[in-house]
Design brief:
The structure is a single chain. By secondary structure, the protein is of the alpha/beta class. It has 19 helices and 23 strands. The longest helix is centred in the middle third of the chain and has 29 residues, at about 170-200.
């Protein structure tokens, strides 16, 4: 072997996750590796009948301060950092009785898991590992000589090399594991720093780190020439990252992005109040509806734009039942995501082998705090999640005519949907269903026109006498800068409108509404989504 082999003669093991530990320690011992360990790890290894030295025997100091100080010692860090081929380092080791450590096995205190349990401030602080990251960084820096392992999933790789290379590891493996180790400590520190920012209510900390653990490498990104991977962050928010994939082929980058958009949108609809369905295509809802049951909600959502729904993502706010599964699978669908599904529904979906079925367990809270991030050239844009919900807003009627009870119900529905559509956004709604959606246009009037045209196309497909925008309401995610976009909506048949207000031309827009005899409601809240 020519890949700079380094024989493993001594290993230091200190782990909070003890899965696979005993089998790994036993295999190391069989290779003649001396085992050194700490606290509970040492007790577990000894209880398995294996010979192990406590780290205090190595350092000459007992663990102290409730275990806070045990590995922060020159005899530990010297054993990890000493360059084996450096004569000066070798002399220092000999002069000070420092024994080399060739393999470090550490996984960190479970800080992320502790936070996820809503533990107290004190418990979270106590689960911030200090000695672990220090040792990991030391071993990783000296990867020319030292092998570092931070996850049980890498135990077998180390054992395979020891078996192949007569008790030694290769530089290739050591470099790969060192790179992973630095990424692990970075993600760990990111979780800690973001927790501090949240606890201290600091929206703009001087440094912001984002870290995650690989879920899977993806076949490609948005396009086949782009590489991609999916990472899970410490945030415990029900959705695509936490969902169980029951069946279907691997999710693509676009599938994941679209499924997230669909599930965040469906979360706006309380399942205790109503059944609801959201159909998403290219991250935009193309059909949304409430119904007395999921089948009704799905059919109403599909009627809005059945052309765009082909190959789309379907999100449901209640348990997928057999009848709904049967109806959804009548057309080509990429993903169905729901909190749960009945066994019968799962069996029906299984007949479509490529259709992905994701079960998220519960719905995310649309009011929950949190932050979102996106990259720009040379930077990172971070903002708080848009957790404004129309039910919590103070609605102000600004026209002479008040909306009817039915119109107000549809106005709230439309604004709930507009929050999840790319700006500029116009949403026509009627009877708690979208009947026209205009998304992502450079001007609001174009969104209004596109949404109306889509309603005309839907009417032609369903052989209706007139588009469903007749007698509908309309929602705009931001104010109308001019009356022209509103006039398009009025011409399409809208009888009431909901918008944030706040334009310098609000009076002009209100007058246009009054002249047409329609009702207008201001929310005071904008829902831009880029």
């Amino acid at each position: 072997m020519t890949d700079h082999p380094r024989k493993v003669t001594r290993a230091l093991l200190s782990v909070s996750d003890k899965s696979g530990l005993i089998e790994f320690a036993r295999a190391l011992s069989a290779h003649g590796v001396d085992l050194v360990s700490t606290g509970g790890t040492a007790k577990a290894i000894a209880a398995a009948g294996l010979k192990v030295s406590d780290v205090s025997d190595l350092t000459g100091f007992p663990e102290m301060m409730d275990g806070r100080v045990k590995t922060l010692h020159p005899k530990v860090h010297g054993g990890l950092l000493a360059i084996r081929d450096n004569a000066e380092h070798k002399k220092a080791m000999a002069d000070h009785g420092i024994a080399q450590i060739d393999l470090l096995v550490v996984n960190l205190y479970p800080f992320e898991e502790t936070v996820a349990k809503n533990a107290s401030w004190e418990d979270c602080i106590e689960n911030i590992d200090i000695g672990g990251p220090a040792m990991i960084r030391a071993a990783s820096k000296n990867h020319d000589d030292v092998t570092v392992v931070v996850e049980p999933s890498d135990y077998q790789s180390v054992l395979d090399e020891l078996a192949t290379n007569k008790g030694a590891t290769s530089l290739t493996l050591r470099r790969r594991l060192a790179a992973k180790a630095y990424a692990r400590t970075a993600a760990y520190d990111a979780a800690i720093s973001n927790w501090f920012a949240e606890q201290l209510k600091t929206p703009a900390p001087d440094f912001r780190a984002v870290g995650g653990k690989l879920v899977e490498a993806l076949r490609y990104g948005e396009n086949p020439h782009q590489t991609a991977a999916f990472y899970r962050t410490p945030e415990l928010r029900p959705g695509v990252a936490s969902a169980r994939q029951v069946q279907g082929k691997q999710l693509s980058y676009n599938n994941i992005n679209d499924t997230d958009a669909a599930y965040e949108a469906i979360a706006e609809f309380d399942p205790k109040r109503t059944a609801a369905c959201v159909i998403v295509k290219h991250a935009n809802p193309c059909g949304v509806a409430e119904g007395s049951n999921l089948v009704e909600a799905y059919r109403k959502a599909l009627a809005c734009d059945s052309t765009s729904a082909f190959g789309g993502i379907v999100a449901l706010n209640r348990t997928l039942d057999a009848e709904t599964a049967k109806v959804i699978t009548e057309i080509f669908t990429e993903v169905i995501v729901a909190p749960d599904a009945t066994d019968e529904a799962i069996a029906i979906v299984a007949a479509k082998k490529n259709l992905r079925l994701l079960l998220a367990g519960s719905l995310p809270d649309p009011r929950a705090a949190g932050f979102t991030a996106k990259t720009v050239a040379g930077g990172l844009l971070v903002q708080s999640r848009d957790n404004a919900v129309v039910d919590d807003m103070t609605l102000k009627v600004v026209t002479k005519r008040q909306p009817t009870e039915a119109e107000l119900r549809d106005l709230k529905f439309a604004f709930r949907v507009a929050k999840h559509i790319k700006s500029n956004t116009i949403v026509y709604a009627k009877d708690l269903a979208t009947v026209g959606v205009g998304a992502g246009q450079m001007s609001r009037i174009d969104s209004a026109r596109i949404a109306a045209r889509k309603a005309q196309d839907a009417a032609a497909e369903m052989k209706l006498a007139e588009p469903m925008t007749k007698g509908s309401v309309v929602a705009s995610d931001a104010f109308f800068p001019f009356a022209d976009g509103l006039l398009v909506a009025i011409e399409a048949g809208a009888t009431a409108v909901i918008q944030p207000g706040g334009s310098v031309r609000d009076d002009e827009v209100i007058k246009a509404a009054d002249d047409a005899g329609i009702a207008m409601v201001f929310t005071g809240v904008r829902h831009f989504k880029h």
